[in-house]
Amino acid sequence: MYGGATVAGWYPITPSTSVIESFDKFTRQYRMDESGKRKAAIIQAEDELSAMGIALGAAWNGARAFTATSGPGVSLMTELLGLAYFSEIPVVLINVQRAGPSTGMPTRTQQSDVLACAYASHGDTRHVLLFPCDPKECFEMTAKSFDLADRLQTPVIVMSDLDLGMNDHVCMPMEWDDARKYDRGKVLDRAALFSAAPIFRKMISGILAAIMKAWIPPSVPDAAMIPLPMPSSRPVLSCPSNHTG
């Protein structure tokens, strides 16, 4: 929640369930509007594939979204992690690792998913992994992961484990900074989006062009978060019919 997440798609799996339970608890406490409605969505899916799909759909529409799972769930999410990687959709996966292989042992800790997460997908992927060593780093790195996902427009995976996720630890106090600002990366707001429309098909040069700008609702109603295309592809601009420009 400190990282700005508003949507969680999830499927229960030990030992990651407490991540979503805590998100549910704190959003009920801190993410309520004046009418008593919660300004966050937690959707339990029928399986891990759908959980990641929910998170990707929310992220594609501009929300900061995440899911939490463990090793067997990562195996099922691999295909959609690849989709997010190649579609440049920022999403966060919190992997609370347990002992493997196969379905493994839900009550044992192990850092067993490093390579599986680093290269998760069919094809050439290199995912960003964060490795917290105590609860304080879990708090800080999870918040940072949303900034990194938006900045790089790619999935970011927080590599926790059962020991961190379910046991008690002594650590330095966690600090909440009310002045903290989210890093959304290179973003086109409403004015910039439509002023750029006539020249949308021009290629972007330079090394940093590999990380494209995106527009994020609700700055543009009915639009989705779509990265500008890579220089090797042919760009196409699709705006809602009630917008001209």
In short:
With 245 residues, the chain is α/β, with parallel strands linked by helices.
How would you sum up this structure, described in words?
The protein has helices at 17-30, 48-60, 71-87, 114-118, 135-152, 162-166, 190-196, and strands at residues 7-10, 41-44, 65-69, 91-97, 128-130, 155-161, 187-188, 214-215. By secondary structure, the protein is of the alpha/beta class. It has two domains: 7-166, Thiamin diphosphate (ThDP)-binding fold, Pyr/PP domains (Rossmann fold, 3-Layer(aba) Sandwich); 186-245, no CATH class. Strands 2-1-3-4-6-5 form a six-stranded parallel β-sheet, with helices on both faces. A two-stranded parallel ribbon has the order 7-8. Helix 7 (190-196) links the parallel strand 7 and strand 8. Helix 2 (48-60) runs parallel beside helix 3 (71-87).
